[in-house]
Amino acid sequence: MSHQPPRDCPLCPRLADFRAANRKAYPDYFNDPVPTFAGDNVRLLIVGLAPGLHGANKTGRPFTGDWAGDLLYATLLKHGLARGPYLERADDGLALVDCAITNAVRCVPPQNKPLPAEIKTCRQFLIAQIGAFPHLRAVLALGKIAHDSVCDTLAMKKSAHPFQHGAAYEHGKLTLVSSYHCSRYNTNTGVLTEAMFDAVVKQAKMAAMPQI
Length: 212
What we know:
This protein is an alpha/beta fold. It has a single domain, classed as Uracil-DNA glycosylase-like domain (Uracil-DNA Glycosylase, subunit E, 3-Layer(aba) Sandwich). The protein has helices at 13-25, 56-59, 67-78, 116-131, 144-153, 184-188, 194-208; strands spanning 37-38, 44-48, 82-83, 95-96, 99-103, 138-142, 168-171, 174-179. The protein has a six-stranded mixed sheet, with helices on both faces. The protein has a two-stranded antiparallel sheet with strand order 3-4. A hairpin with a 2-residue loop joins strand 7 and strand 8. The N and C termini lie far apart (33 Å). The mean pLDDT is 96.
């Protein structure tokens, strides 16, 4: 099973229709399932919700081109999980170090709200992606939807592993760390501060790379 949906993926009709409409409205956007962004020797996988309409759906790289990406990539650079410039473009030369970034749903959904059936359908790619990283030791889930999808991917009972910011759950060789999503809404309302996000990224890095 491929860990990347095909371009113009037909599996979720509503999302395929939305992509088609966006191709007309924004012909210079990426407008396809956004592939995982990965460095070498991936030990930490960061899982978000879905591409933003004017962020990853535009640029073709997860969390690139919107506020969530500004905070995420600045934090990864601070903790040595990325190197190079982040210029909100897929060709800016930024590289990830020992980590990868993907989304629970690879296509942009209307109003940034994927349906449960779409999350379930796209989970096959998350399962395959996790399986493709032999050195993976930790997953950082950004938001409850990502957390729940990772739990389902790993066959972790959600009632026994509830979403909570900063929670860490051991599952075999993997540790699942969860965070509030680094969205502008969460930071503007104070649900997530930059200090809180910095701490949870550090926590996830330590779970993935305790010797570093």
